[in-house]
UniProtKB/TrEMBL annotation:
Part of the FGAM synthase complex composed of 1 PurL, 1 PurQ and 2 PurS subunits. It catalyses: N(2)-formyl-N(1)-(5-phospho-beta-D-ribosyl)glycinamide + L-glutamine + ATP + H2O = 2-formamido-N(1)-(5-O-phospho-beta-D-ribosyl)acetamidine + L-glutamate + ADP + phosphate + H(+). It is found in: Cytoplasm. GO terms for biological process: 'de novo' IMP biosynthetic process. This is Phosphoribosylformylglycinamidine synthase subunit PurS. GO terms for molecular function: ATP binding; phosphoribosylformylglycinamidine synthase activity. Its main location: cytoplasm. The gene is purS. Its EC number is 6.3.5.3. InterPro entries: PurS, PurS-like_sf. The keyword Cell cycle does not apply. One of its GO terms (cellular component) is cytoplasm. Keywords: ATP-binding, Cytoplasm, Ligase, Nucleotide-binding, Purine biosynthesis.
Amino acid sequence: MKARVHVMLKDGVLDPQGEAVRHALGSLGFDGVGSVRQGKVIEMDLADGTTEETVRDMCEKLLANTVIESYSVDLG
């Protein structure tokens, strides 16, 4: 079974990498980009029967800093 975890900084948390990407896009002539938020995607191959609750526990303990990041889990 595969799991995909999307981790993003919470709204209101400064995103310097996203700001650097926005600035670089403008420098390359891509006008009209108001803001950029950068996150990460973590893909895992898991044993069959692994529950979403287990993956969320992984996120809470290691994969996401829940003070400043939010996450979503897709199992498939």
